[in-house]
Amino acid sequence: MPGYVAKASDHGSVRELSELDAMCLRHAQEFIRVENVELALMALDAIEDQNHRDALIVRCAVLKRQRNWKALEQAAVCLMQEAQDTAEGALFFSEAMHGTQDTEQALDFLTSYALRFAMDAHVAYHLARFSCALGEHDTAASYLRRAFSTGAGASLKEEAANEPDFRPIAAQIPTL
After folding, report:
1. N or C: the chain end with fewer CB closer than 10 Å?
2. Which CATH number fits domain 18-102: 1.20.1300, 1.20.120, 3.30.70, 1.25.40?
3. 147 near 121, Cβ under 8 Å?
4. What's this model's pTM, rounded to 2 decimal places?
């Protein structure tokens, strides 16, 4: 695992990446786009500032695609520390728990973030996923309505239609 570690940082601002690190990050994003996660990880490993929020977000996305739940959990912890003003770290962390079949804990954890990020459509979407996976279909539908009522609603509705966790309520999704 490359050198990202949980550490205190200046949470008030986002550090600028060096020109070389920014180039490596762009390459990593392009490799993800073409679904070459191995090259994406190589590009990420070349970044000097492993704890930069953007590098951590991309690393988490790669680890999620690889279904490397333990490493995703570790990277998400770092991301939560680096980007306390966004829900991304909490979303990736809860996704890692759900990936290891600890969906109830993922729901509890993300629920603890829900008030802090009440307007985040992706938080509502993932709360819906985890609720649905646990058989709480009415709760899931309620969370989906909230997620769909935001600016990201159309893309989330499309994503929900293809999400296996929503199979039990798939017929309701178009009307939410």
Report:
1. N
2. 1.25.40
3. yes
4. 0.87
